Amino acid sequence: MKLSPLVFEPIYKEKVWGGRSLERLGKRLPAGVNVGESWELADLASTSADGGGGDSAHSKVARGGMRGMTIREALMSAGANILGSTHAAPGGAFPLLVKYLDAKENLSVQVHPSPAYAAAHPGAHLKTESWYIVDAAPGAVIYKGVKAGVTREAFERHVREGTVVDDLVAVPVKAGDFHHLPSGTCHALGAGVLVAEVQTPSDTTYRVFDWGRQGRALHLERALECIRFAPADADSFARADGAARMLLCTTDFYSVAEVNMKAREPHTLRIGGRAPRVWMVLSGGGSVVAERGEFDPVALNAGDTALFPASMPAAVFTASGACRVLEVLLPHH
Q1: Which class is 6-239 in CATH?
Q2: Digits of tens for pLDDT over the chain (333 positions)?
Q3: Is 207 a catalytic residue?
């Protein structure tokens, strides 16, 4: 079975810290809502801030040969043709969660379950993530890792005193920066930052500190068991340089690259049956055309996220103007 690219409808999440910056990517946001997250490609049986269950989230195909299906329905119908030799997540789910985050205000200081904690607690799910900075206000920062010398005991005391932010490493950011956040990294997205996020498919989050906001649960005891008390590793940062293609990170779960294309310059896509890839179109746009006409042309615009199935026939993407894409590759076996 030869499949065409699948372009998904976003799933918008209202957040107390969210804003309207996603409109700059061409998103049509619901009126009067502060949107903090746009889930671009999601296949979760349940969602919850603390991993305790909740609503399911399955992205729906907006354009392409499987239009109207959810990603879960598409996998049930044509799983091997979509995944190739890539392993599905537990339960047969798609093995990535791809989203945008718009932080009008600071996000909570948080951590995701470490491998050891997730292995010992069936309800907790490993979450490794990466942030590509799409835009950042002057002076904006992210918080990434714990300062050298801060002990667990001091950290816990500072949480209770409300001064824990001083224990975190504040990193100035600008558009084109890339930060990898392995599970166990204590982190927070600072106000004025818009990111594209690639992560393993989990929504288990343990909040440490919420900037004085009321009404959202904290999970300090669980967080303390997961946090790596150290600064982030130096190789967890990369800076995109505008090259035609720059690899930003490689992990056991995915690799991420920035791809820049010139107007009317053809970009050949040969997936080869091995593994799917995902494109997040950050700016510009164009059209994907099968080399031998196996599927109708598929338009991609700024703000679109597309999945190229493993069985997709050879195709060519031609940008209508300068185009920048975040490309996510999945491992194959």
Answers
A1: mainly beta
A2: 679 999 999 999 999 999 999 999 999 999 999 999 999 999 988 655 444 444 579 999 999 879 999 999 999 999 999 999 999 998 899 999 999 999 999 999 999 998 888 889 888 888 899 999 999 999 999 999 999 999 999 999 999 999 999 999 999 999 999 999 999 999 999 999 999 999 998 878 999 999 999 888 999 999 999 999 999 999 999 999 999 999 999 999 999 999 999 999 999 999 988 999 999 999 999 999 999 999 999 999 999 999 999 999 999 999 999 999 999 999 987
A3: yes
Nearest to 208 by CA among 270, 146, 250: 146
Q: Which residues, in sequence order, are bridge partners of residue 222?
A: none
| Residue 300 and residue 106 in contact, taking contact as beta carbons nearer than 8 Å | no
Burial 69-108 (b: 16+ CB within 10 A, else e): bbbbebbeebeebbbbebebbeeebbbbbbbbbbbbbbbb
| Distances, alpha carbon 281 to alpha carbons 83, 86, 196, 262, 315, in Å | 21, 23, 10, 14, 17
Domain ranges of the chain: 6-239, 245-329
DSSP string over 307-321: EE-TTPPPEEEEESS
Sign of CA dihedral 59, 104, 254, 277: positive
Calpha distance 272→259 (Å, rounded):
19
What fold does the segment set 245-329 form as a domain? Jelly Rolls (2.60.120)
Contacts 24+ apart (CB under 8 A), 218-221: 219/50, 220/156, 220/159
Q: How far apart are the first and last CA of the chain?
A: 20
Same fold, 6-239 and 245-329: yes
State the catalytic residue, choosing from 72, 207, 277, 324: 207
The CB-side HSE value for 256 (13 A sphere, CA atoms) comes to 28
Q: Record the pTM.
A: 0.95
Compute CA 184 distance to the chain's CA centroid, rounded to the nearest angstrom: 17
Are 123 and 220 contacting, i.e. CB atoms less than 8 angstroms apart?
no
Cβ neighbours of residue 2 closer than 8 Å, sequence gap 6 or more: 81, 294, 295, 311, 312, 313
